[in-house]
Amino acid sequence: MNLHAIRAIYMFEMARTGRTLFQSIVSPVISTSLYFVVFGAAIGSRISEVDGISYGAFIVPGLTMLSLLTQSLSNASFGIFFPRFTGTIFEVLSSPVSYVEIVVGYVGAAATKAMMVGVIILLTANLFVDMRIEHPAWMVLFFVLTAVTFSMLGFIIGIWAKNFEQLQFVPLLIVTPLTFLGGSFYSIRMLPEFWQTVTLFNPVVYLVSGFRWSFYGQADVSVGLSLAMTLVFFVACLGVVAWIFKTGYRLKS
Amino acid sequence: MPPALQIEQLSKTYESGFKALNSVNLTIERGELFALLGPNGAGKTTLISVICGLVRASAGTVRVHGHHWTEEYRTARRLIGLVPQELTTESFETVSATVNFSRGLYGLPKDPARIEQILKDLSLWEKRNSRIMTLSGGMKRRVLIAKALAHEPKVLFLDEPTAGVDVELRRDMWDVVRRLKASGVTIILTTHYIEEAEEMADRVGVITKGEIILVEEKNALMRKLGRKQLVLQLAEPLARLPESLTAYDLTLAEAGDELTYTYDSQGERTGITTLMSDLREAGVHFRDLQTKQDSLEKIFVNLVRQSQ
Ligand SMILES: Nc1ncnc2c1ncn2[C@@H]1O[C@H](COP(=O)(O)OP(=O)(O)OP(=O)(O)O)[C@@H](O)[C@H]1O
Ligand SMILES: [Mg+2]
User: Fold this and answer.
1) What pLDDT score was predicted for residue B296?
2) Chain A with chain B: Cβ pairs closer than 8 A
3) Do A95 and B105 touch (CB under 8 A)?
4) Is the same domain home to B260 and B113?
5) Share of chain B above pLDDT 90, in %
6) What tens digit of pLDDT does each residue of B99-131 get?
7) Does the residue B15 lie in any domain?
8) Where exactly are the structural domains of chain A?
């Protein structure tokens, strides 16, 4: 194991965050606060409670997930796309670093940053609403697993993308809608039956549901199913990453 | 002791179907400076990229100090340093951060003293805290060299290292290369400045259309292929070449005051003696003479032309 290399990639990526601290940390916090103002205060005053939890508190796990997902995706996709774009990736590809080490370095850094943002959002949320965490260990498990899985998905997107438009495409056109429709801001039981069924094909539902359960012990789907689906997604991403490196897809001609 | 580099039957066909390397065989001994010459698109960068693991080979093997380049990629790659043709740098990084990053990638612990030495050797020390985007092109080139040297490679690839570099810097760069060579590093360089190869290289390889058409000791090559020219400055200008001299490979300068005789210095006879006597008989007198040898560049151009 080339630990120095993992460290080098990881620290390099983290240093990049340091330089762009404002975008990386501050802007998600601001946008989350806006969500609280709009959804929590404005709309929440009309909804009041979901499943016996105040609406403000109810949306905290979903909002955190939303940030965790988008942050993981954008950090990881940009982190690998940028060196591909500038050509500096040549150095990583020609160094004595295994694929696993490359992925650990890039995905690890992206997930770390996303989790930092996630934690900051939870802390920010704590200022607005009363919240509790009933199952901290589960919460951490879902938190880390989601960050890592979506960082891997971001890594895949960053390798697949041929240009900046494509880099934005998946997060913007697929993941954001899935997240909004994934029960971040409502319980899917609030939907008509038909849409409840449709929603079950949305993987984000399982993440949000499991994550919310770890806070309030309330879930749209059983927590075991949530965890299973998250793991399925994790393994799928892992498989794609392995395939990318095995074939050199878009990395080596 | 296995050679620095052993390339066997190496071929590369790009997805487009274009065959960029055609069964290349090449052995490079340790400590030698090998110059790879070839016209644009000959396959020089492709060859280097395949060796360094940036491009997949379609067939063939490479061994670096005896280590198989994919099966033992960790050992093989640790020995290799690469300075790419393109100026690919992390614009937002500082010089020292990017050089330290390179060292880390190769699995080596930090070594500030070593990095300092490298940066000083390349006159980058004053710029160590500057962001790369604030550097000039020539400095960026040197940053790439510093990165490639950060892990103390034993085999160094320089893909057109002096492209777009001013004369002074080029001289500095060659000093660095000489020092590296003196310390035992094997160097493979591609260049379009043939005088560089002529001055620096131990051996020269010529590649065109993905095939190595010649590998030769530089000196032997110059001797073997070198055609010499005898230039005679005439005492009185000639209007045209005398009839009796047309058998010789002679050209008369436009002004008629200079006669150039081209001959093969390695040939059985150069023909100079008979030319002299024939000149005297024809009543052509000269006041000075000199001989010139073909530069490597001419040799190279001739070779490439022949192979087409
Ligand atoms: N990724 C690629 N896909 C298809 N063809 C390629 C690719 N990369 C290079 N080629 C082709 O392979 C040939 C060799 O290219 P290469 O870059 O190795 O040449 P070179 O000898 O380094 O030339 P130069 O002196 O211009 O740097 C060229 O015809 C080039 O167009
Ligand atoms: Mg080239």
Assistant:
1) 65
2) 79
3) yes
4) no
5) 51
6) 999 999 999 999 999 999 999 988 899 999 999
7) yes
8) 3-247
C-alpha A11/C-alpha A176 separation (Å) is 29
Task: Indicate whether B20 belongs to any domain.
Answer: yes
Q: Is B95 exposed, middle or buried (0-12, 13-18, 19+ CB in 10 A)?
A: buried
Residue of B54, B92, B103 lying closest to A252 (CB–CB): B54
Which residue has the CA at smallest separation from atom 8 of ligand 1? B46
Ligand 2 centroid – CA B257 distance (Å): 43
CATH number of the domain within which B92 lies:
3.40.50.300
pLDDT tens digit string along B272-308? 888 888 888 888 888 998 888 766 666 677 777 777 6
What domain range includes position B176?
5-223
What are the pLDDT digits (tens) for A25-75? 787 778 878 887 787 677 767 777 777 788 888 888 988 998 899 889 989
Q: Across the interface, which of B56, B102, B104 has its CB nearest the CB of A7?
A: B104
Distance from chain centroid for Cα B100: 29
Same domain, B273 and B196: no
| Nearest CA, atom 19, ligand 1 | B41
Task: Report the distance separating Cα B154 and Cα B184, nearest Å.
Answer: 8
> How many separate domains does chain B show?
2
Query: Are B284 and B209 within one domain?
Result: no
CA of A113 vs chain B CAs: smallest distance (Å): 19
Give the domain CATH number at B231.
3.30.70
- Which residues share a beta bridge with B207? B212
Task: Provide the shortest C-alpha distance from residue A171 to chain B (in Å).
Answer: 25
CA of B193 to the centre of ligand 2 (A): 13
Backbone angles phi, psi at B272, to 5 degrees: -70, -40
Amino acid A236 reads A
Which tokens is B152 given? 């103390």
pLDDT at A180: 80
Strand partners, B83: B158
Q: What is the mean pLDDT of residues B243-266?
A: 84
Q: Which listed ligand is nearest to B159 at the C-alpha? A: 2
Residue B234 C-alpha to ligand 2 middle, in angstroms? Answer: 46
d(CA A117, CA A123): 10
Q: A97: which chain B residues are within 8 Å (Cβ-Cβ)?
A: 105, 107
- Our answer on whether the CB atom of B41 is closer than 6 Å to any ligand 1 atom is yes
In a domain, B308, yes or no: no
- Beta carbon of B40 within 6 Å of any ligand 1 atom: yes
> Within this chain, do residues B178 and B254 fall inside the same structural domain, yes or no?
no
| Distance, CA of A146 to CA of A233 (rounded, Å) | 9
Q: Which residue owns the Cα nearest ligand 1 atom 3? A: B14
Q: What is the spatial distance between Cα A79 and Cα A61, in angstroms, rounded to a whole number? A: 26
pTM above 0.90, yes or no: no
Query: Where is the domain boundary, B191, B223, B255?
Result: B223
Residues B21 and B163 in one domain: yes
Q: Which atom of ligand 1 has the smallest separation from the CA of B47?
A: 18
